[in-house]
Design a protein that fits this description.
It is a single chain. The protein is built from 14 helices and 13 strands. α5 (115-128) crosses α7 (146-158). The mean pLDDT is 89. By secondary structure, it is of the alpha/beta class. The chain has helices at residues 48-55, 78-83, 100-104, 106-110, 115-128, 133-136, 146-158, 176-193, 204-210, 229-234, 239-245, 249-254, 281-291, 311-318, and strands at residues 8-15, 25-32, 37-41, 63-68, 71-72, 85-89, 164-168, 196-200, 213-218, 222-227, 274-276, 295-299, 305-310. The strands form three sheets. The chain has a six-stranded mixed β-sheet with strand order 6-7-8-3-9-10, with helices on both faces.
Length: 319
């Protein structure tokens, strides 16, 4: 299961633990299309991490099945399955006595790759995660910042070119600035590689930013809603989902669209502040409010004015 992304299907998956009356996950059914990021969110006790760990059989399914590319995970050797799936966790889990290069190469080495192939792959991956090999190859984890360690963890998870990756709150322990940078890095890397990713987070804003689809779980591992972020925000299934995504879901919805996606009003000699077409509608609204204006001139990457967006247009969109 390496190379091209693979579809993941949960078919009435239930997980029961001995001595507990209620299941941790109850009859979960959903499909993650190949090449998409699925974010799992929900309150404590919703079974998010349990769902994720059943994919690589760190936890075994009690009832139902999970298939990756049409193959049941229950039919595969657990060790081989885990080596074929990229795994990124919050604590990173780098080996402290091993260099960045050796940490990155762990899975290819276990798979018996030739040394030359491993060395070339390490160079490629360190470049991909923006850790120049000449600067970072020989460093040890103790010589890295938290964000750099997480980049190495991401490179290690990608090392054997897995079709599927599972990520358990990988950015949760980082400061907000580093976290935001790594979120954007993940989106960049995903745009290049198109892996199928299951991403566990407790942060609905992170899920909205990263997820092609979001699964919201209730306590007890019951699926409340599974949708694209814009559908989740525009049409929450019930009060639980509406409360979970927040009272500001209209603003969150504006954050999913950019100015260059709108039909702009004609230029009228306006002296209003300018905003790049890549600006989100939420940030455009914020700029209008802080600058005391009711319109913005939208410019293209070359700095040329393309048209005007007004406060009235944004508020009509929000409804």
């Amino acid at each position: 299961m390496s190379g091209a992304a693979a579809e993941i299907v949960f078919d009435r998956v239930t997980k029961r633990y001995p001595g507990r009356a209620e299941p941790a996950v109850r009859e979960l059914s959903l499909t993650v299309p190949a090449g998409e990021i699925c974010c799992l969110v929900g309150p404590s006790g919703a079974g998010k991490t349990t769902v994720m760990k059943m994919v690589n059989r760190l936890i075994d399914v009690t009832e139902g099945d999970i298939t990756i590319g049409g193959t049941s995970v229950r039919s595969l050797d657990p060790t081989e399955l885990r080596r074929s799936i990229g795994y990124v966790i919050q604590q990173v889990g780098l080996f402290p006595h091993m260099s960045v290069a050796d940490n990155t190469a762990v899975v290819p080495r276990l798979l018996g790759w030739p040394k030359e192939r491993i060395a070339a792959r390490v160079e490629e991956l360190l470049d991909l995660v923006d850790l120049p090999p000449d600067d970072y190859r020989a460093r040890f984890p103790s010589q890295l910042s938290g964000g750099e360690r997480q980049r190495v963890g991401l490179a290690r998870a990608l090392a054997a070119d897995p079709a599927v990756m599972v990520m358990d709150e990988p950015f949760g322990a980082l400061d907000p600035i580093t976290r935001a940078r790594l979120q954007q890095e993940l989106l960049r890397i995903h745009h290049e590689l198109r892996k199928t990713i299951i991403f566990v987070t407790h942060d609905i804003d992170e899920a909205i930013l990263l997820g092609d689809r979001i699964a919201i779980l209730r306590e007890g591992g019951v699926l409340a809603q599974y949708d694209a972020p814009e559908d989740l925000l525009a049409r929450p299934a019930d009060q639980f989902v509406a409360r979970f995504v927040g009272a500001d879901r209209g603003l969150k919805l504006l954050a999913l669209r950019r100015l260059d996606e709108l039909d702009l009003a004609p230029l009228d000699g306006s002296t209003a502040p300018t905003a790049a077409g890549s600006t989100t509608l939420r940030d455009a609204l914020s700029l209008m409010l802080t600058s005391g204006t009711r319109s913005l001139v939208v410019i293209d990457p070359a700095g040329e004015a393309r048209g005007v967006v007004t406060l009235d247009a944004l508020t009509r969109l929000e409804r």
